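Blinded run. Sample ID left blank on purpose so nobody reads anything into the name before looking at the predicted structure. Input follows.
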Amino acid sequence: MIKNIELLRKKSPDFIRKFFSGCTVEEKIDTYYVCVEIASKNNVFFKKSSGKVIDRSDLIVNEMWQRFVNDWKHLQLVNDDWFEEHIGYKFHMFYFPCSKPILTQYPDNISYIIDRVEFNNVIVEDAESVFSGMNMVDKFNIAFKHLLVKKDDISEPVDGFISGSGELSEYAKGIIDFDKSVIFATEKPEGFIFKYGKKHIYQTCSNDDARVASAEKTQYEYLLVNFTKFWNSDESVVDCLNQSYTKSVCNLFNKFIAKEKETKEIENNIDASSLESPCVGKRFDICYVNIPDEQSVALCKESELYNNIFKILLINLKRTKDMEHSIMFTKKNIEDWNMIVRTIQNVCV
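Blinded prediction complete.
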């Protein structure tokens, strides 16, 4: 677990000096963390930081995932032998879908920063050498993360930190040799990570307070409750289902919006912007090319409300709910919603 550097001040002065003398320093990168796993010749998995494989719903809801997958599929196409030679490898990296994905500005010529490489779950020491035989590394703007270089004499900034007069970020210039280090941020870095052994890991962070985005759950749950009423009132909804989950959601969405256009129940009770998912940094658009239904695409483009409803249904119609994390849902609402999800799961692949 990475701790705030201020907690280091609770340690003894001797430990703090020993810590800074022996620690490594890294730039804290402020963007999305992803993984490409080559499981076999025909199975390459694209994963989020959570370890979840990026699926079709992700590709639709957020267009930035499509670019990530497209880039690495193209790299696979022009490096077929290289990919086959690296079966069993996992490539963990920072992904930049734009120059300021969250709160820190980066150059336009960086798309990926390789953080670490694993082979059969063992870390490869020289990650950069693994890519030496790969074609088009430069074209896809792939860089490599390296440890920052510390100055030979850091006693003055460390003593200043121990004395408690100011944050460590104020002393960073006295600890890090910026002339010999590669910093990716174009202006002020997001922060720095200090590692001493496996247990002692601390960080500075410039934008912690601005990083919290709260969700407005009341209107979101109002929408889902409204959908359960729609489902229960129309026996023909099951005819919308087929083996494709995405196509089934499109069919249900089209039917649901047709009903909404008659009643305007959601439009009259919900602010469309309140249905947006929480977001810090750049908000990416829906990826229409992955929606397998022209009517659904047209409805999504027709209004922000319909666009947000589609995204919510696509993500939530495969997730059961519980009372613990609900605001508006009653026990009956929970039972109805979970029945809908199970019905869809029993039909769709």
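Unblinding after everyone has recorded impressions. Residues 217-347 form one domain.
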